[in-house]
Amino acid sequence: MPWNNQGNNQGNNQGNDNGNPGGPWGNSPNGSGQGPRNQKPDFDEFFRKGRDNFGRFMPSYFRGNAIIILLVLAALGWLASGFYRVNTQQEGVVLRFGEWIKTTPPGLHYHWPYPIETVLTPEVTRDNRINIGFRSIGDGGPSNRRDLPFESEMITGDENIVDIDFVVFWRIGDAGKYLFNLTDPEETTKVAAEAVMREIVGRVDIQFALTDGREQIQGQAKQQLQDLLDEYQAGVIIREVQLLAVDPPVDVIDAFNEVQRARQDRDRLKNEAEAYSNDIIPRARGEAARIIAEAEAYAEQIVNQSEGDASRFTQVYEAYLVNKDVTKDRIYLETLEDILSNVDKIIIDDGAGSGVIPYLPLSEIGKTK
Question: pTM of the predicted model, to two decimals?
Fold first, then answer.
């Protein structure tokens, strides 16, 4: 057959050219040049031929040291693998046999190649986000949230329940501490943020948390959370704590609204009462001041009148001591004047002549004037 002939010719040619039996594994008993099927290849011969072929391409003075050159090249390649680059948004953490030894800034650096040293390059400029009280679904819009009451429901200082959903924005501050001081830094940050928020809410009233206290609560939560993570040496920087929703629990929202309306009515009535009080009290105080002023004026008038009467009596008494008869006549005339001044007087003249009416109504004459 042609295949057997081709095999025989090739085997014979190889045997003739190399001075060896035909075929790469020697002559076979049947003369085909393929050798027995169960005969194993000679690896020593294979490597020897490979070394000889490599030596043909090397200069004569290197042919005896080919293995040394290969080892030198391999060592140089191994040493060159120690160069590494840290990007601007990263920080290099060098490990020597798994132990953190240093942190490198962005740029080109060198470390002992693997397995002596390795390097990790976490991103330290990226803002990470932790949602507490809810989980985003889809595009993360307000309508695509799954509420988690066991994270968001908290007790306020006045023993009410409030549902708070908030977000913590953080980034890596120290890559070495972040990677090696805590087993799960992100989960630790989440648990610490939840604990800090519960502590702050537990010190304030629900009305303060729902209205004017949002910014104050956010600021306190950021500061206390950063202090706590610094105490843990977590290597985390808190960028912001943002309250998204502060509401009563859904199960009691109607009752809470009723309470809020009742409080609003109470405040309205209180304000009306204070307005009425602010109006009536000043008027009452003014009336009281007027009455007191009138009483004081009356008292002063009476006192002055009494003092004047006493002074006049004293003067009359002193004049009486000087001339008793004249004083008596004067007192008599003044007394009659006082008495008769309040009495209707009619004068009748008995000695009037004829043609004259002996009647003079003085009181009527005075009225006509």
Answer: 0.51
